[in-house]
Amino acid sequence: MPEPVSATVRELKAQSGATGQPFASLLVVRKLATKTASNGNPFLSVDLGDRTGVFSCTVFSDNVAFEALKNAGEGAVVRVEGKIEQYQGRLSPRLAKVAPVTEAELARPGVIDNLVEVSPEDPAGLERELAAFIEGIGHLGLRATVKAALEDLGGAFQTAPAASLMHHAYRHGLLEHTVRMARAAKALAALYPEVNGDLAMAGILLHDSGKALEFEGALAPKRTRRGLLQGHVVLGYQLVRKAGLKAKLDPEHLERLEHVILSHQGQLEWGAAVLAATPEAVFVSMIDNLDARMGMVQRALRQTADGEEFSERLPGLDTQLLTRPPGKPGA
Amino acid sequence: MPEPVSATVRELKAQSGATGQPFASLLVVRKLATKTASNGNPFLSVDLGDRTGVFSCTVFSDNVAFEALKNAGEGAVVRVEGKIEQYQGRLSPRLAKVAPVTEAELARPGVIDNLVEVSPEDPAGLERELAAFIEGIGHLGLRATVKAALEDLGGAFQTAPAASLMHHAYRHGLLEHTVRMARAAKALAALYPEVNGDLAMAGILLHDSGKALEFEGALAPKRTRRGLLQGHVVLGYQLVRKAGLKAKLDPEHLERLEHVILSHQGQLEWGAAVLAATPEAVFVSMIDNLDARMGMVQRALRQTADGEEFSERLPGLDTQLLTRPPGKPGA
Amino acid sequence: MPEPVSATVRELKAQSGATGQPFASLLVVRKLATKTASNGNPFLSVDLGDRTGVFSCTVFSDNVAFEALKNAGEGAVVRVEGKIEQYQGRLSPRLAKVAPVTEAELARPGVIDNLVEVSPEDPAGLERELAAFIEGIGHLGLRATVKAALEDLGGAFQTAPAASLMHHAYRHGLLEHTVRMARAAKALAALYPEVNGDLAMAGILLHDSGKALEFEGALAPKRTRRGLLQGHVVLGYQLVRKAGLKAKLDPEHLERLEHVILSHQGQLEWGAAVLAATPEAVFVSMIDNLDARMGMVQRALRQTADGEEFSERLPGLDTQLLTRPPGKPGA
Amino acid sequence: MPEPVSATVRELKAQSGATGQPFASLLVVRKLATKTASNGNPFLSVDLGDRTGVFSCTVFSDNVAFEALKNAGEGAVVRVEGKIEQYQGRLSPRLAKVAPVTEAELARPGVIDNLVEVSPEDPAGLERELAAFIEGIGHLGLRATVKAALEDLGGAFQTAPAASLMHHAYRHGLLEHTVRMARAAKALAALYPEVNGDLAMAGILLHDSGKALEFEGALAPKRTRRGLLQGHVVLGYQLVRKAGLKAKLDPEHLERLEHVILSHQGQLEWGAAVLAATPEAVFVSMIDNLDARMGMVQRALRQTADGEEFSERLPGLDTQLLTRPPGKPGA
Amino acid sequence: MPEPVSATVRELKAQSGATGQPFASLLVVRKLATKTASNGNPFLSVDLGDRTGVFSCTVFSDNVAFEALKNAGEGAVVRVEGKIEQYQGRLSPRLAKVAPVTEAELARPGVIDNLVEVSPEDPAGLERELAAFIEGIGHLGLRATVKAALEDLGGAFQTAPAASLMHHAYRHGLLEHTVRMARAAKALAALYPEVNGDLAMAGILLHDSGKALEFEGALAPKRTRRGLLQGHVVLGYQLVRKAGLKAKLDPEHLERLEHVILSHQGQLEWGAAVLAATPEAVFVSMIDNLDARMGMVQRALRQTADGEEFSERLPGLDTQLLTRPPGKPGA
Amino acid sequence: MPEPVSATVRELKAQSGATGQPFASLLVVRKLATKTASNGNPFLSVDLGDRTGVFSCTVFSDNVAFEALKNAGEGAVVRVEGKIEQYQGRLSPRLAKVAPVTEAELARPGVIDNLVEVSPEDPAGLERELAAFIEGIGHLGLRATVKAALEDLGGAFQTAPAASLMHHAYRHGLLEHTVRMARAAKALAALYPEVNGDLAMAGILLHDSGKALEFEGALAPKRTRRGLLQGHVVLGYQLVRKAGLKAKLDPEHLERLEHVILSHQGQLEWGAAVLAATPEAVFVSMIDNLDARMGMVQRALRQTADGEEFSERLPGLDTQLLTRPPGKPGA
Description:
6 copies of one chain form a homohexamer. The first copy, chain A, is α+β, with helices and mostly antiparallel strands. In chain A, 44% of the residues lie in helices and 18% in strands. Chain A is built from 13 helices and 10 strands. In chain A, strands 1, 2, 3, 4, 5 and 6 form a 6-stranded mixed beta sheet that branches. In chain A, strands 7-8 form a two-stranded antiparallel ribbon. In chain A, strands 9-10 form a two-stranded antiparallel sheet. In chain A, helix 5 crosses helix 8 and helix 9 crosses helix 12. The longest helix of chain A has 25 residues, at 279-303. The radius of gyration of chain A is 23 Å and the shape is globular. Chain A starts with a strand and ends in a 9-residue tail after the last strand. Chains in contact: A-B, A-C, A-E, A-F, B-C, B-D, B-E, C-D, C-F, D-E, D-F, E-F. At the A-E interface, helix 8, helix 12, helix 13 and strand 10 of A face helix 8, helix 13, helix 14 and strand 10 of E.
């Protein structure tokens, strides 16, 4: 038996035909369900994945991997050894060994980055920039409100994705999208003097804060109970309201800040609770649009292979993006 | 000069051609704006109306009615005397005298009913029925929450219209629509056992409570500042949350009750903050649809003249309603 | 060779990996097509299923099952023996024996229930209730019309599904949905006195009667020729018209009853021929909405596994349903 | 007092400023309602018009025209004498004399043509062409069905408008639109051999026949009771079904002919009961679209003044039409 | 007869009731049509307006103003004297004298500003800024293309409105909107490095250039023939293509620049010829959205009277704007 | 080893179960991508197809087919030998030999027809008919413009598909659709005299000419770079503009011809740059609709198996088509 090759899911899938080839991979348990075969024996139906893809397989109770997977549970990271099989038309390896991964191993540089897609910007830098934007808010009540709201979220704001599907849909994506919007607002501040800068900045920093409550599970995010029953707009509104009361923000600024949160989705059918009716609310919803759309462009540029002229069709843009810059050979 | 005839706005409008005919009417000041003519003199542009219609006219500063109207202000009820003129293509009487109306006069039976459209059901009876529905809620926390929310509104819940345009759009309309939905829910309770009756009843009683905050001005309602900045769904949600916390309602029931409020509009584009995701929320939003639509039917039946086979085209139904019951002579 | 295990389709699918395992199942022939291989030999492409799922497989002409399946035909119930194979990425067993199932066997309790999804309510009870609702119609012409229409359908009304996809989409579903709407109408009758009760009840009992003609094949329903060329609204209208003429229903009641059928879908784009323009038609279309939506809720409650907090995403509700009742441990 | 000038409504309206100018016109009573002034006296609110326009005025009971108008009734043609007044911002003449018009007068050439917009093609010629198209149907059952259906309508088919608003919306418009579609179908027959010519021709001749029942009142058309309760698609379907049964048309051809009627509106939201599912039904619905749209073009060409380069904005085309042909001076 | 008072249209309308009052105003001939009265005499139907409003009146051929207006023609500026009348329900003065206005008079400061709404920014300053943005384009071919395109338009680009209805819909509005977008792009350049700055800037400067061809008539703009037949997107594309060929811009940059023009409307239903498929095109379309929406906010802030808390309902925002800044007394 | 059987893709797929069966087929290389396995070795992921279907397979670098496929490239036609395997749930043969196909072989009758779907009409005949329609254009400038535009396209117009998905989506489809529309226009010419025949004919012949530039690759068509960046409407407009200038067509006819191209898609959301605003443009867009829809009908009739009463559900018609003609046994 040859040495197991360390491989990503994308690499494993590329080896169609290499049946029996041993491998070893670090993977996230994306889904895990216990079922019962007709002979009465239990078996596991499990989805394993990393940032390059996901595959499903079945593990019977006489396999040593059975107990290890059950103990690990959904969302865990495990080291998997096995042999490649295409048993169900798609990759479906036979697992030979499953071992838990220690916190220390996970913390090593690059490890998490290989397991889930992360923001291309350095999270630590983004956090420092966020802190600076907060300090830049001159209105004391607004500044205190932003701090109180983020504190209330613990670290969830810093790691949450910005969306489940469309834009900045990856670890630290919410932080990245928020900071990028703050940069844009700062750059544009002088051009739109009718917009109160402190209100707009506080509104931007908190506009999507409800998303940190709408999803859970850093490695295998899914919608929470309150995400389903209230939605991120109302969750964010409630978070901001609580923070504003705690920070003793005057009622007028609080009302305007709440309005930015309630209206930032732009249209009722996109989830806004009301339509934007203050200069700040209109401004924030338009900056949100701009950065969300540009975020899709940036992600497509990162993910399109070097030789390709156009990206795949992008759902958010409804077309394929020309990914080669002007003047580059081959264009 | 003949005796002034006491006339409704509909009657005044029917007298096109009767220029110079004196009249006297009890009217609401619906809109009032002071403008300046090019000669520098101020004049009033005023809308006066009762439940049968509205007309506009102009009052110059040398008219004795000028000061009386200015003092009365928007939303006031005044006794107006004048002469019919059709001066601007539409009815535009020349006002001769405007006098305020005392509280005592307004309180006389039938007076308010002639000034604004009111619920066809007796408000006092509706209030008693509302109280009985509240007492019928078995779950103590839910019952206390409903009471606390309505208390918080003072009497606004009892007099507010249920909508600005489409259904139950008249004084006591919110109370009437709420009680009718409660009756329907009670009647249907046995048929849908998967629906928790106490939750559904509390949800119905409070589903539109935010409307009492969205509009103001019993005689000439217009959208409030918070109505424009938050909308009745979020206003109702916040009212219920506050009441639930005050009544120490357990978090799970509170979350479900809030969800009923947030989702009762049915579709995001109709203003729902989230889509109904509990049996109670689906049930309440469907009962709301049913009674709103039947309310349009009932209003059209009341307002269509006796001889007519069909109503006017109704915006909410997008057709004309056959108003003559089956078997009636003439059908 | 081990004893064949009696298994449902869901169980067979759960045994991925159990290649070669013998089984025996009672299945419906959902689709059956004869094709010709490039060597000129015929083979069958067949879909077999029960209420838990469906799989496809191929049967060559040298297989003894070939003739048995051809003779059985689409929509038949057969006893199948074979061995599990996952030959095409999905379950694709090798069939060893196919035998027809007698009427007597099919009539045994629970047999049909395992083959197709059926109404959760007892069909015999529903039929008795239907009869009582008919007898409760006071207007002789309307009562006779309902009877004549249902008689014309033979037993098709009692077994048809209420929809192909969305709600009450199972055997006896039409009967169940109709009776449930009748119960709701009866419960609400006192609240909407402007609605003629007999007309509304007759309209409810017949509103979807065209569906019994739109689909055929109790075990593998598909749209009929007239279902495709006329649609259930016009089929129901024509059925009711014929019944009304036979029952000598007076023209005015017939016109109003026909209007209920023609308008019950609510919106033109949902298939209504005209918009509801009588109190009865508005009432019936709203009750239809209410019960259809609640039917989706009830089905999701039945089908969601006990441990799950939320159902799968439901197309008709466009969200996931919270399936755990309030106050239940775990909530 | 000068001689009354014979004037059309358009001419009367052009004379704004000519107050007191006597006139005499032949007009249709478009609407007529008796109302009561606040002094208890009755008065008439009346709309009078011809093909060039319409105006409203009020007639009090002491005017000799009062009784004459009441006796004439809605839809009648009357000779009116009076003086121009602009009493309500718009033309509102003072009527001095109203006299009924005899059948003989109405039958004089050009008289009706001045009262209502009529087809620009000669109705007698259109009727002969219709008869020829009917005779050209080779299939005996289809031919007999078309004859029976048109016979059932009496002369209504020949004079009805084809629409209330959008295209061929004038007297004989239905006849004109039908004959034009028949010409187009005949011209295209050789190009689409998969279309059964007899079925398509019968379908075209009857596709809008329900419109002759949907509207009533040749001079002042309004929607009928059955037009509101059933719509022209179902009315046409029922008419054709009855005619087919009478003509003993075989069931298969009848089913296909009915399907053409039921589907010709093209989309459910435009009123189709089902979507076109036979070659003939697709063909007829597309020819209908083509001629309806070209009918709007033709009407705009007729109605745009000679000097104008573009028509008014046309609702059916959603733009202005360039009405000057290419190469014409001025272009 | 008193001295004629110099009055704006808004002031004239405010004087309802002041019949007979003489006035003198400087007005634009917005629409002018010659019609024939039934007595064969010609008369003029004319719309006269300034930036505060517009009114219609009729001028007969025996009025000395008749010839003067005919000679002036549509779009001209005239000095009008007359007396106030409300002859048609709305203001409809009797004109006594109409005199042409010299170029010199029009050029006087403030004169044009009173006749049509103009950009709130100084046009000369905007033009200088535009020139600087052009000079800032580093890529020689792109810079030359922008220059050639603007040169081709003569001065039309500098005075055209940016829209007929929604945003920056006033004289110099296109220039203002373009410069504001250029400022925003420059401010954001560092944040979106994947966007080629020269391409984006050239795209912004030319994105709406077709609008200078879509409308004509600085004082009474209406859609041109080519505006109706091609639309501003294709007109701009063709202008840019011609300019690019003239400036010998390399094909790749020209293709990308053309794509920005063709796609800047964002959605097909808003008039885009294709969807944005390069980083520059996405960027420009989003900046366009942002500035258009903020332009509506700014205009509402300018136009709402000081005492008002909310603006009128704004069609582009679909709500009323809160116009009072936070912290201001009264809020 | 048995003789390889010559088989189409549909036949190969029908032989599920015939693992190991040798075959030889003529196939198009639809997609070809080089990837790297985790062991560092390159392999090909390739899609092979003919007009009956397509399959994917993987070819490793130690297979002799590896180099042959790489050399052939995407879009090439190759002769493939191998053995049937269903290795990935779907057909995935093991390739043994891949050889290029000579031009001479491809030119043999029927060969291309087996590789891609082609127009059912004889292309040579269609080309002759196209030439005759061109010669029939009386206006010299229009005729020369059509010739110049088609010449500019080389032979691309004659082989291009008319659409990627919906109608006439096959080789020569554009030619076929164009000629069919020209036939229809000629047949209808006498009925719509307001339509300039030469303009309409030139417009029809060129309306979709941009599609010859929007797609490339006769055997495996995909959207070109300019197809993605400009779309077929603008590509066709530019082609026609260039041809018109070359042919010295007078500006007025050129403007009208361009307008037909720009508006033929009918609605902005379907890709029209402007709405049809000339009689010719309305006419061409309606004929386009008619023939496109009838083209879907004809294709469904060709592709539905003889025994079937209804086609599959057709996306363009949104229903199933009744494919059996009236009167045929079995109906």
